[in-house]
Amino acid sequence: MVDQSLDPISPKFDISSNIVSWLKSLPKDRVLWTILVLLLTTALLTGAGQALDFAATMGGSLVHTGIFIIISVLIAAYIKASGADQLIARALSGRQEKAVLTAAVFGALSPFCSCGVVPLIAALLAAGVPLAPVMAFWLASPVIDPEMMVLTWGVLGLEMAVAKTISAIAIGLLGGGAVMLLQRAGYLKDVLLARAKPACGTSSCGPSKLPETKPVWAFWQESQRRGTFMGEIGTMGWFLTRWLSLAFLLEAMMVSWVPLDQVAAQLSTLGPWSVPAAAAVGVPAYLNGYAAIPLVRGLMDIGLQPGAALAFMVAGGVTCIPAAIAVKALVNTQTFLLYLTIAMVGSISVGLLYAGYVTL
């Protein structure tokens, strides 16, 4: 029997009929308790003003990303209600090598933020899309998007923008390839945490195991599909609200208490070790992709090598707190650690390759 208090996307939240059950589940919600404990601890240690500032920052971040989250939740709910998730699953369950390449490229070029892509990832995993292309998409998406590409071009130059885009695709390919090899060796068979599994009972169904049904694009004409749509909105919306609130709170605490700019400035003094050191700093530290660009520009002006700058941005983007917490909320510890390992290895690799390129 699964403890639904640990379920990152619990089916208890059904806005049509189960609001009472949802309210009763709140006292057992460990995510909400964690947020409350962090705020109370902050109030006790540093004063109520600091705790209120953190809470305000958390709320502001939710509002700032709200439109993207709402759009992504609506898309995910539409995909599930219409049955398009099975269509996508069959399309990505053919030759995994091709699927991984497609997912990595689409992830790097998609407009979704690292938070907004979570509903789509969850829907695809539950529908039976193999983990390899999902991991490729998940790793590539937070590194860059079209808007960030243009901003990087304007501040750091076209070469760095191209390098970052290629890095996103490369890390996606690395992650997807690693997952394929591990699955062929018998690992990563069931990665979802306490979530409704697809019909075949695994998160990596083959195309032959998926139902051959056509999507019903006008799903609102069927009451059951309308219920699925509304239920998915409530379920996924509540999931994102809880987990992203925790992520943004942790972000606010880290930005306030950890002098990342001072730590990053030390990287320019490490010479050839700056690339792995930059990745090591970027992986555990929150680094918003947009905020990182002017910071990296300043660091490069005082001597940070381009390879180290690239590793710093890529590592921080892949493992930013919202993205990392979303990964941990959906998959088991083994898969989460693989995600972090690929982020580290991939960031160091692209940084070293770029450093070698600029010295040619």
Keywords:
globular, 360 residues, mainly alpha, disordered N terminus
Furnish the topology, listing elements before pairings.
Elements: H1 19-25, H2 30-46, H3 48-82, H4 84-91, H5 96-109, H6 118-127, H7 131-140, H8 146-156, H9 158-184, H10 223-257, H11 260-265, H12 274-282, H13 289-301, H14 306-318, H15 321-330, H16 333-358
The number of distinct helices, counting runs of at least 4 residues, comes to 16
Shape: globular
- Weakly predicted, low-confidence segments: 1-16, 195-211
What is the average of the pLDDT values? 79
| Structural class by sheet pairing and helices | mainly alpha
Helix and strand sequence: HHHHHHHHHHHHHHHH
Largest sheet composition: none
Strand content: under 5%
Question: What's the gyration radius in Å?
Answer: 21 Å
Number of E strands? 0
C-alpha termini separation: 60 Å
Helix content: 55-70%
Describe the structure.
The protein has 360 residues and is mostly helical. The protein has a domain at 10-257. Helices cover 70% and strands 0% of the residues. It has 16 helices and no strands. It has helices at residues 19-25, 30-46, 48-82, 84-91, 96-109, 118-127, 131-140, 146-156, 158-184, 223-257, 260-265, 274-282, 289-301, 306-318, 321-330, 333-358. It is globular and about 65 Å long. The termini are far apart. Residues 1-16 and 195-211 have low confidence and may be disordered.
